[in-house]
Amino acid sequence: MNPNQRGAIAETAIALEAIKAGVEVYKPLSEHARADLVFGIGQRLFRVQCKSAVRKGAVVIVRLVSNWHSPRGYVRTRYSADEIDLVAAYCHELDRSYLLPFELVAGQTGIQLRLVPPRNGQRAALIWAVDHQLSGAVAQLGERRSGTPKATGSSPVSSTPQHADTSTEQVGAHQFRNHFGWYMERTAAGEEFLVTRRGKPCVRLVPAHPQLPIAQGDVSSTACRSIDSR
Question: How far are the Cα atoms of 57, 79, 124 from residue 156, in angstroms, in the given order?
Fold first, then answer.
């Protein structure tokens, strides 16, 4: 297949899987727009750039640049938050679609989604393909957007947790992993977090000593944290 055929198949496959997941899918009328599709999830519309991904061994590679010919020659650019909200990628070899939040791909020319653990046992800084399969990512995104976001303050910019009750906030597994240190600090300060994976509760993060006084801006070395598996 030539690149245009692969791109058309990828966009169609992504749209079909999104519709099956209950997403409202809209198609821009203008050609060569930065957003290929628009997803209606909850009460919000998301601009989506569709990509054709390839499998190379144990990873799925998603390239994150756009290329075109201009009067001045060949142009290659990256995407910005002013243009898109999500990147959707379809892997032809696996017949599977993935959905990535823009904050995960911002400023990058490509990203690798790992299918299986590496042989060297590395775990840090890996992006797992299973955490971003389209149907699960849509469910998690819908949950985050349906909640009432808190003021970000010093929290991660992409964090918009919803309240499971008055004292516990929900956060997706990917978001929790990327900002682990911040959530540990907030937990040591007395907050609780329910970590979900593909939209389902997975573990609860609670302070080991809820009544332990902690000075503002400082986390005591004795404030050990614990994760209670459900």
Answer: 33, 21, 18
Helix (H, G, I), strand (E, B) or coil at 200: strand
pLDDT at 97 over 80: yes
What is the Cα–Cα distance from 197 to 141, expressed in whole angstroms? Answer: 11
Backbone angles phi, psi at 19, to 5 degrees: -60, -40
Q: How far apart are CA 206 and CA 164, in angstroms?
A: 14
Strand-pairing partners, residue 65, are 78
Whole-prediction pTM: 0.61
Bridge partners, 77 (sequence order): 66
d(CA 50, CA 12): 9
Strands (E) located in 71-215:
73-78, 86-91, 96-101, 110-114, 162-163, 168-172, 192-197, 200-207
Higher pLDDT: 127 or 14? It is 14
Q: Are 14 and 88 in contact (CB under 8 A)?
A: yes
Angstrom distance (rounded) from CA 174 to CA 12? 26
Match 């999500």 to its residue by tokens: 86
Query: Hey, what are 49's tokens?
Result: 């750039």
